[in-house]
Amino acid sequence: MGRQRIRFELNGERREMDVEADRLLLDLLREDLQLTGTKEGCRVGICGTCTVMVDGRPMSSCLYPAAYADGTKVTTIEGIARGGELTALQRAFIEHGGFQCGICTPGQIVSATALLAERPKPTDDEIREWMMGNLCRCTGYFGIVRASRAAADGGGGGRRVRGLTGPATSAPLRGTGAA
Ligand code: FES
Ligand code: FES
To answer: Of ligand 1's atoms, which has the minimum distance to the CA of residue 179?
Structure first.
């Protein structure tokens, strides 16, 4: 397999690197760049734990060739809160029980962040539909929907909240929320 030089923006920083043609974005992030906030689950595009944003849209990084990131802006869970400031959505996940074991949480937060950026006042049904590509085996989804609802009602889904640090945590095309 040949290598390809890619240039992209990762969490606000310009990056330039050579990648194998068959390298997946998930592996590039976790193994080459040590951004382990993005979790590996099913690796076949079903569970949503590996969700990152590419140009603002949620993608399964386990199916996304790293070479396709050339010229894009990639946001991982590490790029959601910066400088010790949680977003209102991240805080709402904490306050409303949006996670338990936490393995799905990075993907949930990235997906919900993309939702609130595209649709600031979603209905509960719209939240559920958008998030259907992010599976959770712990919460029963109630806390996730409550947290997303609270962040939307507060008008601050992507807004950062000073003085808080996030949980240790942090989809091809998933613009509709479906994997
Ligand atoms: S690891 Fe499950 S969708 Fe990517
Ligand atoms: S919090 Fe455990 S799988 Fe979602």
So the answer is: 3
Burial, 5: exposed, middle or buried (Cβ in 10 Å; 0-12, 13-18, 19+)?
exposed
Ligand 1: distance of its center to the CA of 47 in Å?
5
The pLDDT tens digits for 120-177 are 999 999 999 999 999 999 999 999 999 999 999 986 555 544 433 333 233 333 433 3
Establish whether residue 69 lines the binding site of ligand 1, counting it when its CB lies within 6 angstroms of any ligand atom.
no
Strands 3-10 and 73-75: parallel
d(CA 163, CA 144): 23
Instruction: Give the distance (Å) from ligand 1 centre to CA of residue 168.
Output: 19
Task: Quote the pTM value.
Answer: 0.88
Q: Is 135 in the pocket of ligand 1 (CB under 6 A)?
A: no
